[in-house]
Amino acid sequence: MSEAKSAGWVFWPETSDEFNDSTLDRNKWDVAGQDGLYCHGMSTYAYFRDDTSLVRLENGRLILKCKSDTPYYCDNQNHNYSSGYVLSKEASSEGPLFHFGLIQLKCKFPNEVGLEPCFWTFGAVWPANYMTRYDEIDVIEKIQQLTSNNIFRQSLWRWIFPNPPDTFHLRHVECKQLVYPAPYTGTDFIITLEWLPTEINFYLNGHWTNTYKYTTDPSAISPYSPTGPRSEFTCVDFTYACKQGIQLSLSLTDTNVDLSKGFEVDWIRSYKLAPGDSLYWPATVSLNDPELTRVHATITIGGANHNGAIPANSDITMWASNSIILDKGFVLQPNCAFELRRIDIDPDLLLSPP
After folding, report:
1. d(CA 319, CA 306)
2. Domains of the chain
3. pLDDT by residue (tens digit) across 271-303?
4. DSSP 284
5. What is the chain's alpha carbon radius of gyration, rounded to the nearest angstrom?
6. What's the pTM?
7. Cα–chain-centroid distance for residue 72?
8. Which of 46, 105, 219, 276 would be 252's cystine partner, CB 3.0–4.6 Å?
């Protein structure tokens, strides 16, 4: 298990929580939506409810559980169970807060296949009286139709509604199935979402699992088809990507299960990148240089009167929004982990300047 990530990510407390308090921080999280009672099609038999027996903090962890409960009618049927669901406060009141960056979750899944934990984000745009755009990133979730406890799913959804409600114009969905080599029960996982302005990367225990990309070319966008071929591109230009609220939920899709265990979340941590300068051209590459992992427009390593040697036994990531030039004298010393990443920039990806 590893929370390894590229150097340069700076902790961002607004959407982070160690869950070490005695009670859940209600300034940061809503439980079961703003009204404390919520129903969603992903949970076949249980509705979400604001109840301390379903959502509580215990021994430094957030615990989401499910129980038999007073019937609640929704989605055209009675639900005889209730379950736990939390969403970041901004997702339900002031507007979703998280827009590009890195989110990590350390958690433990329940033993029962019919208890389905999910770590996901979503956001919508409401310019008038109806939703015009909706985006969803399912960082990791169980698959309702499968009865295995070592299979996950990672998905990206986008809807565009140019007309009043209930009229789809575009619906894009991409989904990848992950088969873990052993049952995930009783095991801590670290799950990572790296959301950049042109791509989304997923990691499980420090290992890359999947990538989705944004595109400005309509011909490269995958149409929705449950069985047809898929493009690696799933969304339109990232400029239109909705801000996201962070969600943690536990669904019930089989009533013949042991409800004594739940979805345990040790912590959730968010990160942003630090802004840099128009040109970064160090005289000597030093691990003590605070500018080393900032996002600069252009990076040059080596060249006239500059020592381009990357220190031995170092782990360096350099970020540039324009170009990276490895000039004369650039050399990797032994046992280096050296990564160069050119990315497009959105202001929400970066920390605010000090």
Report:
1. 19
2. 9-272 (2.60.120.200), 279-349 (no CATH)
3. 999 999 999 999 999 999 999 999 999 999 999
4. B
5. 22
6. 0.89
7. 31
8. 46
